[in-house]
Amino acid sequence: MVDIAVLVSGTGTNLKKIIERIDAGQCAARVVGVVSDRKAAALDFAQERSIPTVTVPLTKRDDRTRWNEQLATVVAEYRPEVVVLAGFMRVLGVPFLNRFPGRVINVHPSLLPAFPGKDAPAQAIEAGVRISGCTVHQVDEGVDTGAILAQAALSVRKGETSLELHARIQQLEHDLLPRVIDWVGRNELDLGDPRSGGWHETDHVLNYRPNYRLNHRLNHRG
Ligand code: GRF
Predict the structure, then answer these.
(1) Is 135 in the pocket of ligand 1 (CB under 6 A)?
(2) Domain ranges in the chain?
(3) For residue range 69-91, what is the model confidence (pLDDT) as tens digits?
(4) What is the spatial distance between Cα 103 and Cα 97, in angstroms, rounded to a whole number?
(5) Which atom of ligand 1 lies nearest, measured to the CA of 9?
(6) Which fold has domain 2-221?
């Protein structure tokens, strides 16, 4: 079992899926707090579930280092073992990351290292790639550059818009992110410390094959 704090900025569909999996006994975790940098639908959902929430806003006038320190202090009060970024739209700096070395993970809607940063599905469509997907990775001070922990892929459909692609990628995220958290909670995946060799996985994780149902449907259409 792993205690997680979830950082959000938006609708929180990933947060909902994590909580659904926990409730179904399929994710060995406990959400100890939900933290946002802005007013977000995800906070309302957490509050309905009696999960403690807090907002640490960042305005243009705020000093970024100080905001990182404040955020780290607020998150640390929940005593999480792992910090999960689920649609958190800010880049975290060293003052935050140093408080949780190796223990901050993020889900990103592309197969990293391709298409880091904003609008990843639009970048993928623009580049004309045939395969895309999502990545769960450890967070470092770069933009989507940390160690890759797990990925799930799908075929990009001809003529698909970036919104349609993102919606299908999110279906993969909704399975992969709770799964990675579950691996951590079951000691199948040890996030380790980047300063001493990084993460380790068991055979159980190595043998995981993402669900290719979405691709099969496409293939049957020819
Ligand atoms: C997800 O697509 C995630 O990959 C990206 O932001 C989106 C968040 O969606 N980082 P939600 O708020 O969990 O619905």
Answers:
(1) no
(2) 2-221
(3) 999 999 999 999 999 999 999 99
(4) 8
(5) 12
(6) Rossmann fold (3.40.50)
